## 1
Amino acid sequence: MTETQQTHISHADYMALVRALEFQIDAGVNVFLEAEPVNRFDHQPSTETVEPNLQSNSPITPPSDSAPVFEPQGQNDDKPLYELPEPRPVAPAVLRKNTTEAGDISAAESAALRADTLEALKQAMEAFEGCALKRAAKNTVFADGNPAAKIMLVGEAPGRDEDREGKPFIGRSGKLLDKMFAAIGLDRNDIYITNLVPWRPTGNRTPTPDETALCRPFLLRHIELVQPDILVLVGGVSAKEMLDSSLGITKLRGTWQDLNIKGRDIPALPILHPAYLLRNPARKAETWQDLCSLQKKLSHSPPAHAANNSANHIGGTD
Ligand code: URA
């Protein structure tokens, strides 16, 4: 572009670019090598993919923590400048079995199964009185974003801001989550967000296994109705619960897993929770790798399923 040529963008687009750049800079993407972007995913990564070992319980090897490899331009034209570690597949994940200590799980199950649309599910959860968490909560935090999006995020539980407003991920963590997705060109219209439990545990404590078990029928029905192409498990509590894994999130993150929800296999990607990243900003580099892996998966998945049955759309997700 010559000095006299100017590009006009709206203030909103400008701010979205600033937010995307902020996260990339925080994640260590601070070296610009070329004037034009190059699709690095066209190159075959040279790192080996570890085949899943379905027989052994050996721990997953996490992707290398080493810094991204930047090569000076022109040294080896065949080699991608930035090599992403290929996510390691592990044994297909299964959902934990229902327990009976969590209260009236069967009431939650039948209420969830009766709901044929997202709006009906939202109403069923708002009417459900079988979970003690609800008594202290101001709102049932159902979801936000676009139910027709390919990507569905499952976080942990609403915090104070979410409880007050009735929407997931709108506090400090939510703002960072927005920046993370902006960094790969996505906003809330491109994703759909919910949590393991829809009611805030008092004092922002972690929901107990009994509480997540009690809310699980609603979550499974929620996923079944949305039919996402990709699940993103936000944080250790969500990843452990959904994958029934004893591994910590620092091992699970970035590893694609097949999660079978009601007979349908959905690729699931655990990522670090933005609240954890706020406390440990140095780990943003790993999240950047995971977001790039998500972007790559997304580019290989077919177009979003046709408007996702308009009957499934819920009102008030703006
Ligand atoms: N943390 C979560 O896991 N979910 C929210 O909705 C907000 C914060």
## 2
Amino acid sequence: MDRILITGGAGFIGSHLCESLLDNGADLVCVDNYFSGYKDNIREFSLHPYFEMIRHDIIHPLFLEVDKIYHLACPASPIHYKYNAIKTVKTNVLGTINMLGLAKRVKAPILLASSSEVYGDSKVHPQTESYWGNVNPIGIRSCYDEGKRVAETLMMDYHRQNKVDVKIVRIFNTYGPRMAINDGRVVNNFIVQALKGVPLTVYGDGSQTRSFCYVSDLIQVLIKMMETKNFNGPVNLGNPAELPILDLAKKVLNLTKSSSKIIHKPLPPDDPVRRCPDISLAKEKLGWTPKISLEEGLQKTITYFKEKLSLK
Ligand code: NAD
Ligand code: UDP
């Protein structure tokens, strides 16, 4: 039985990963400081005989004996990661050093949940792994963007210097049930606004694009990446179906049958203009393409938020 550590396991993606790995028969240790994750996300696993929860902040060392490490701990929504920017940098730098030190000591493979944000406001479209990015090093998103870039650097340095088996995945916008109601990310924001009948807040003119991947597609490939030998990445993971944010707002209104209006608010600084993954490498090395369409994924997410808001 594999003893698996997930950092950030009480978060949105982490809790889905816990669920899949438990279903696959893993012996799981989930570590989280509940900064942007919730006990509610993992409550249903608490009685599982092979699920163990540790409240711990990964900027401090952690001594455990495990066989595999999924390192996801880091606030992912702009509201959360900007709230305490210095802490975001510490989580990415000190937290990743601590997890790499652990991986080195116990000789465990370690997967880092990096981000499409390493490309910044990309000048290359769609983004390929060979592109080095266009990132503002001193802006309000830098704690996250540069944090993830340093985390990737640390992964590769531990790999070259200490032979740690590292796996870097660059995750593009992912959505689904268990996103926090109030974390300000666009899919959950629009759905909650539409369900409450309040205006949908499109930042700027809404022409900026994103490409949205449903969480079950991502979980499947995270596990595939961990189990694939001799491939360190980085590899882009996302759904290449790209659309402007204004179109997303209209789609959400349609699917929720909401009569909410769309209003425009100022575009936050350094908000990337276009984002879409080139997933050729994931197809080639991992045999993966996402399966869930935006409509299907949005529908499942709407159902979740209806229950969460007690509208069902
Ligand atoms: P999330 O905020 O829901 O989950 C992150 C989890 O990490 C939370 O439970 C939080 O409490 C925990 N955490 C944060 N700092 C910690 C610390 N110092 N010590 C211990 N735990 C800590 O975010 P998510 O969407 O589930 O993202 C998970 C990972 O995937 C993150 O690393 C994120 O950067 C990456 N990612 C996510 C997306 C996306 O679209 N969801 C895109 C790119 C990358
Ligand atoms: N956005 C928006 N309205 C919202 C929340 C976000 O128009 O209520 C925009 C945001 O400016 C960005 C895109 O939606 O262009 C995606 O934002 P999110 O915070 O979900 O993720 P990002 O890709 O920016 O990290």
## 3
Amino acid sequence: MIFKNIDSVLNTKFEGEKVNLRGWVYRKREQKKLIFIILRDYSNIIQGVIKADSKSWKEAQKITIESSCELTGTVHKDKRAPTGYEIRISNLKIIGLSEVFPITRDKSAEFLRDVRHLWIRSREITSILKVRSKVFEAIHEYFRKNGYYEYQSPILTCAAGESGSTQFEVKYFKEKAFLAQTWQLYAEAGIFALEKIYCIAPSFRAEKSITSRHLTEYWHAEVETAWQDFEGLQKLGEELISYVAQKVAKDCKKELQFLGKDPKEIAAIKPPFPRITYRKALELLKKDGMKVPFGKDLRTIEEKKICSHYKKPVIVTHYPKKVKAFYMKEDPEDKETVQGYDMLGDGLELIGASTREPDIKKIVERLKAQGENPKDYEFYLDTRRYGSIPHSGFGLGVERVVQWLTGIDNIRDTIAFPRTPDRIKP
Ligand code: 4AD
Ligand code: MG
């Protein structure tokens, strides 16, 4: 038997045609002489109806919510049906009869997290997961088209790439190891071989606070480019984000609409993006009645405020050196700041980027200031000893980008099985 997907038969050209469908029972409504079954598959939902005189009536009576089944029927346009078409079912076959499905309408968010493995079947999560898949596709495509090699770094590492305080420590035989927070240190070694590299891999952060934008395990798209200056780094960030937005706007229209987002607004996200320095951002905030002294990192409410002035993501450059990582290049014109940027979309940090500090002495000083032992970074320091070159790169939080594109409240819902400080199950 050849099965069609539901979405493909929601089409006038199938009116009156006999089709085979398969999927799961999304809803069921029983009347004396009619049973309505809403069938769900990966692509959409469709209403099915069975009459009491049908040979499948008994099967229809027996079938429960989330049972899997195969059915045959003719397609009819019907305004009252949830997706505008109805299948008049002539044959229904239960494949896997479902026990009473634990998810019903008014379940708490906490309960839905307990049964996450079942909740991912919901239309909302399914839509988000499709956007997520498209985001991965777009990132790979963008880098491949632009001559980047895919390059992997270890997940079990010996030194902190970001901040020691958010490292997950693991026992590694007789030594201590850490789960990777970033591929960056190994990427900076890799550009001496491949020059233009990227990856998408999990990163781990032992963030203790529970927020709507932090996961302890997230997917990190990172890029490192030899010879690239700060201007090139900013262009790369806006081009990548725009490429992802275009692709999602074009290929995920239905999903975006279902999630209440306008694909046209997403398609309008094209370079150039607004760029402001951290110092300028402080002035802007002051006008809005938010006083932030120079040297303080921006909090979410402040980032949101900055974003509220623009329709596109904002590139905030030149943060104070002391709030940023040891590897970010000191700005030659404003030595209190670094040649780096955060790209903010609707108050979310989508990208963290920088030109890399070339001066080995400065790197060592800053490592010490952060309480790190430079001895653990010998392999990294070698990148500055043997044919050092100007280079730059960034990290993009894939879940942050999905959250920004879909407008979903909590980052937890951008990944099938979120990892947060309060939850490791299921
Ligand atoms: O700004 P971060 O910490 O930068 C780095 O890790 C650099 N080493 C990247 C590089 O230059 N290769 O992280 C990069 C991005 C952030 O902008 C954010 O989008 C995301 O990773 N991110 C998180 N996403 C979800 N949960 C978390 N706990 C995240 N921490 C960072
Ligand atoms: Mg950052």
